[in-house]
Amino acid sequence: MNSKVKSINEYTRELKISFSWDDVKSDFNNNLKKFSKKIKMPGFRPGKIPADRLLQQFKPNLEADFIDNYLNRYYLIALKELDLKPVNQAEINDLNFQMESELSFSAKFEIEPMNKLPSFKSNMIEVQQNRYLHDSKDIDDAIAQLKRSHARIETIDSGAEEGDFVVCSLQKLDESGLPIIGKKYDKQYLKVGAGSFTDDQKEKLIGIKPNEKTRLTLPVKKNGEKAEYEVVVDSVDREVLPDLDIKFIKMVNPDLDSIEALKNDVEEKIKSNFEERSKNSFEQELIDKIIEKVNPICAPSMVDNYLDNIVKDLKDQNKTAGINASDDEIRNQYRKTAEKNIKWYSIRNLIIDQEKISADANHINLEIDKLVKNSPDSEKQIRKFYKKPSNRKKIEDSIIENKILDYLKNFIKVKIVEVDTKDLRNEGQNNE
User: Fold this and answer.
1) Per-residue pLDDT tens for 211-226?
2) Gap between the terminal Cα atoms of the chain
3) Range in 28-37, 62-71, 356-365, 379-388 with the lowest mean pLDDT
4) 3-state DSSP of 180-213
């Protein structure tokens, strides 16, 4: 075999390959035997046709069939000998082969670029870490949410009040006020006074009863476009909240025995949630800034492959709901995310190699034990789930990711920013 590799850029290679007739002769003859079994020729049984007769009549076909069956094999032989690992399907050009002559072709493909880590230094980047300052309103809101989660629904005959759910049909109307055929939607739920989808929603729905009608202007598109609908009420449902008493407290957590104990338990969960939120945002900013600092080159085909998987996953997840966006629209929407993730993948691998980071079976088993400890009633299911290699791999990846982040934390300056949760609540209200 003769070969020559040309570097087009950091990630594109062009490989020129040639094999002598002696290199391929044996494979050609084997292919000829297989070919003969598919041919019918008067006077001969399939597979027993003399080679010279086959070559006399089918030589071009035999050469083409050989290329179809063996070209990839010779391409892989060349890649292995040269220790090249393409990340996409090669573009084959300049293919030449004739019996008793050499087989030659060129292959153009992309490889993972040979990126390098910079010299990491102490305090080389600043990363913000939020410290959330919660207040009593957070506790009250959390308890209110607990009450809503344990509420019972009553169907009422009296008029709807603010906060009630109006179960109804919605008939879209044209500009003249006539029903549009095919635009009637049954079993719709409208919460009285919730949101700002129509200025007069609250006024028109308060007091409304089953079998009564009204008209509402509702949004039909995200851009703010609205349309008029006729509303026919089927029923009015009211959310009845439980009292904040010992019965409710025991329903939430049998180990609690007072309102004060419930508030303390809720507060601990709030602290834990905000700590997790702080940790996630801190680590994401750390990753983003490391990506910006290193800025590794990524092969376009790696990004394309990543986007292919995103498109497939989204389509699979939404088969029943349907997706209006085209493949190109999805790819455009997620391209920056794909590029960022591929760059982080490259950086991860460089750090893993440099720092010899790994996760052995003991590490993985310890993580599984933690999961079991947090959900002892589900131990059997948890251990069965993580017997599957792909699921164990997820834990392994998580352990390695944490080790990488711990390593990078040695080189950062942390900026503590106190965040009042009151401001977060105000932001949420403004976005509604």
Assistant:
1) 999 999 887 766 667 8
2) 68
3) 28-37
4) EEEEEEEEEEEECCCCCCCCCHHHHHCCCCCCCE
CB 10 within 8 A of CB 297: yes
Instruction: Name 96's bridge partners.
Output: 104
Answer yes or no: pTM beyond 0.85: no
Q: Give me the pLDDT at residue 184, please.
A: 94
Domain residue ranges in the chain: 2-110, 125-133+257-431, 152-240
Q: Say whether pLDDT at 316 is over 60.
A: yes
Return left, alpha or beta for 79; rule: phi > 0 is left, psi -120 to 50 is alpha, else beta: alpha
Residue 316 per-residue DSSP state: H
Length of the chain: 432
What architecture is the 152-240 domain classified under in CATH? Roll (3.10)
pLDDT of amino acid 428:
63
Question: Residue 95 has which token pair?
Answer: 């293919």
Average pLDDT, stretch 301-325? 81
Is domain 2-110 annotated with CATH 3.40.30.10?
Answer: no
**63-93 pLDDT, tens digit each:** 999 999 999 999 999 999 999 999 999 999 9
The bridge status of strand 226-240 relative to strand 213-219 is: antiparallel
Residue 2 pLDDT > 70: yes
Cα(291)–Cα(346) distance, integer angstroms: 10
Whole-number pLDDT of residue 221: 66
DSSP assignment of 229-249 equals EEEEEEEEEEEEPPPSSHHHH
Over 120-186, what HEC string results? CCCCCEEEEEEEEECCHHHHHHHHHHHHHHCCEEEEECCCCCCCCEEEEEEEEECCCCCEEEEEEEE
Q: Token pair of 52, please? A: 């010279």
Q: Quickly count: other Cβ atoms within 10 Å of residue 96's Cβ.
A: 11
Q: Which CATH number fits domain 125-133+257-431: 3.10.20.310, 1.10.1670.10, 1.10.3120.10, 1.10.1200.10?
A: 1.10.3120.10
Burial (Cβ within 10 Å: 0-12, 13-18, ≥19) of residue 365: middle
CA neighbor of 170 nearest in space, from 236, 221, 227: 227
Structural contact between residues 106 and 14, judged by C-beta atoms closer than 8 angstroms: yes
- How many helices (H) and strands (E) the chain has is answered by 12, 11
Which pairs with CB-CB distance under 8 Å and at least 24 residues apart come from 384-392?
A: 392/364
